[in-house]
Write a structure and sequence with these properties.
Length: about 130
């Protein structure tokens, strides 16, 4: 999938590494086996990257959503958190964070929709969502 933020990050390719895992479609209700396989492959690679300690900051964007859809378990994510080198900062994003992850986290924020123009039929806008 093409996301606006990924296009912006290309300007910083020399200092930011972006890796994406999964199918090109959103998961609506239940993940299929291909979704699960790709997510697990990505989780293993991310675990190796984190444990290598090369990066000071690793962002696991939408990892909480991945656990919510059972692409991998909250315990697997927690195991990565617990085994990371001390100098590596993890940022884990996404809705529906599991209580195990919330309990372990040093900082938890919640962003919730109060009003969204999408519900009025306004689609993704160039430069904002796409």
């Amino acid at each position: 999938m093409k996301y606006c933020e990924l296009e912006s990050l290309k300007k910083f390719e020399d200092i930011i590494t972006v890796k994406q895992y999964g199918c090109e479609d959103f998961i609506r209700d239940k993940a299929n086996q291909e979704d699960i396989n790709l997510a697990r492959k990505g989780l293993k690679e991310v675990e190796d990257i984190i444990n290598a300690g090369e990066y000071q900051l690793v962002i696991l964007d939408e990892a909480n959503v991945a656990t919510h859809f059972n692409l991998f378990s909250p315990q697997e994510l927690l195991d990565i958190i617990n085994s990371k080198p001390e100098h590596v900062e993890l940022v884990i994003t996404g809705r529906n964070a599991d209580p195990l992850i919330i309990e372990k986290a040093d900082l938890v924020t919640e962003m919730r929709e109060i009003k969204h123009y999408y519900h009025k039929g306004i689609k993704a806008r160039t430069g904002i969502e796409k």
